[in-house]
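Dear colleagues,

For the upcoming journal club I promised to circulate an example of a predicted protein-ligand complex. I picked one with adenosine-5'-diphosphate because it came up in last month's discussion. The inputs are reproduced below in full, followed by the predicted structure.
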Amino acid sequence: MTHSPVIELRDVSVRYGDVPALESIDLAVSPKEFLGVIGPNGGGKSTLLKVILGLITPDRGTVLVLGRAPARARRTVGYVSQKPVFQNDFPASVWDVAIMGRAGVKGLLRGYDVEDRAAAEEALRRVGMLQFSSKQIGSLSGGEQQRVFIARALVGKPEILLLDEPLASIDPTMQTDFYELLQSLRRDLTILMVSHDIGAISVHVDTIACLNRRLFHHGTRELTTDVLEATYQCPVQLITHGPVPHRVLKEH
Ligand code: ADP
Ligand code: MG
């Protein structure tokens, strides 16, 4: 059975002035796919997410999100950006941060109603942070904050969740918990998660995309050394750590 893709890019290219960030990207993401996007720093991973969000209009090519132009599909997409949204002394509670995600649904000036509060409560419960509602966001650990940002992305009830390097601020010992959360969310969502950690991500996702300006691979998470070397343009070796074999980069 074939499903029409949830996200589709055809021959998409993006430049920042003279700098090419994405070149001739063809990508089709299926409903409920959990896709890990890997690639080196500067490889265009964040740019790809911004194109899907409609924050960047490509210089060339077509982007469809649920069959619509990205700007028109914006409300179906939840997004957790790579850059921290707040300084640690930002005077907002966990509840404030989560419910802010409703502003994108109905506009900022309207104030929050019963439906908004119910959505915020449900989202915080889903990420296991409801009991921290009154805590100041900056007082939480990186992993807890990331959960709240995911709740904020979920309150608009998206069909697609885009996560840009969500593990960067999370203690490695907490990463398993984080992946468990994503596994529980993926039942209702198509998830694109950006990472530069090839090892951990490949254990948890369905598919991997290797991006370094061009798309070198989209498909099985069992990556060949050739694909990784083409993406990272440096030697890669296979090693084992933890219970599952991981391919990681050689020192270089
Ligand atoms: P990644 O997320 O994989 O690290 P990015 O998408 O952030 O990669 O960046 C891809 C390329 O585009 C890099 O060369 C980066 O320096 C450049 N770039 C990203 N954002 C901008 C911007 N706003 N202005 C100019 N160049 C940018
Ligand atoms: Mg990035």
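Two points we might discuss: Residues 16, 19, 21, 39, 41-47 surround adenosine-5'-diphosphate (ligand 1) (CB under 6 Å). The first strand starts at residue 7 and ends at 16.

See you all on Thursday,
B. R.
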